[in-house]
Amino acid sequence: MQKQSWSQRTNVAQALGKIDGETRAVVPPIHLATTFIRDDDNQYRSGFVYGRPDNQTVREAEAVIAMLEGAAASMVLSSGMSAAAAVFMSLAPGDHVVVSKVMYWAQRNWLLTDAKSWGIEATFVDSDNLDAVRAALIPGRTKLVWIETPANPLWTVTDIAAVAALAHGVGARLAVDSTAATPVLTRPLELGADIVMHSATKYLNGHSDVVAGALATNKQDEFWERIARFRRSVGTILGPFEAFLLIRGMRTLDLRVRAACASALDLAARFDGHGCVSTVLYPGLSTHPGHAIAAKQMSGGFGGMLSIRVKGGEAAAIKTAARVALWKRATSLGGVESLIEHRASVEGAGSPCPTDLLRLSVGAEDPADLFADLDSALRDAHRN
Ligand SMILES: *Cc1c(COP(=O)(O)O)cnc(C)c1O
């Protein structure tokens, strides 16, 4: 077993090289059974009892994610939101959390509304400002710091290692929503984070056909056991068919992410200075405020997500999105098809998202075609 010496890219391409013991198939079967036979001496030696707590296909997906993140353990759940909620709901009533102001909108809304009834008090900070993070921490009460980097939809970059040190200084854990970075570019646990969360709906699966979430931890401590118990008791495990698709999607993760990074950088450079665009938000541009930290904690690229602010305001932005032919006008991100979205329409009141912003998820298409299509839509929208 030399497996440990092979690279992350090699291991993910083969989904850890697992083959089916019975048939020698290079693609393991999907385990759909919800129940398992007890041994005649009343034991369950296979380790499997019932489908809500556990599933072999789910375990195989988790092994791949744990490898990708360099984690002690991983857990896959029914969605990114259920993964995040499992972490927050494993806190105790009265616990205080510090979270990024710029973050996935549905999670911000959940924290602002429903999380309160669980006794969770959240302070929202500009997590790219370390003084703001430090000032928000309450020694003895802050139990979790939650950041997203790069963060939706401004691609704000937070220094994972620096925030980890601050969080640990008051005895809090650091959790990182690493959906946009992916483990190809950033491995938060190696930078000091305690928990990594992914909307596996996005890059990990990569084909816009599975809703899934993932968590990874640097240690299987009592808090991780609480999270595991939450999934087991409430039944927010991922379905076996989705886990199978997720494994299949992850086999091309490295290739997809590298291609998306190269295309996104190309598009960011071309739209930077474009006559119809006031600002390009992309951590790969040296003008982006988070560029230096991104260069430090993202290796091999700056991600496949960028946003442009359209001259002429909200109306021009919406008009531009209406006139693309190749880009798909849809929410979500991280799939092989490129998506464009007027983000303020989704996020609603209270969002830090400017109304002239279009969020771009760069897929696997030819970047020259992606540029030509959006360039023509921008010009068209500005003409009439
Ligand atoms: C989509 C997304 C989520 C939520 O994940 P779901 O799989 O839709 O529940 C959380 N964080 C980020 C950054 C996302 O893009």
Automatic annotation (TrEMBL):
Residues bearing the modification N6-(pyridoxal phosphate)lysine: K202
InterPro entries hit by this protein: Cys/Met-Metab_PyrdxlP-dep_enz (IPR000277), Cys_met_metab_PP (IPR054542), PyrdxlP-dep_Trfase (IPR015424), PyrdxlP-dep_Trfase_major (IPR015421), PyrdxlP-dep_Trfase_small (IPR015422)
Gene Ontology molecular function: cystathionine gamma-lyase activity; pyridoxal phosphate binding
Cofactor: pyridoxal 5'-phosphate
Keywords assigned: Pyridoxal phosphate
Listed SUPFAM superfamilies: PLP-dependent transferases (SSF53383)
One Gene Ontology biological process: cysteine biosynthetic process via cystathionine
Cited Pfam families: Cys_Met_Meta_PP (PF01053)
Transmembrane segments: none
One GO cellular component, as annotated: cytoplasm
Family statement: Belongs to the trans-sulfuration enzymes family.
The protein's name: Cystathionine gamma-synthase
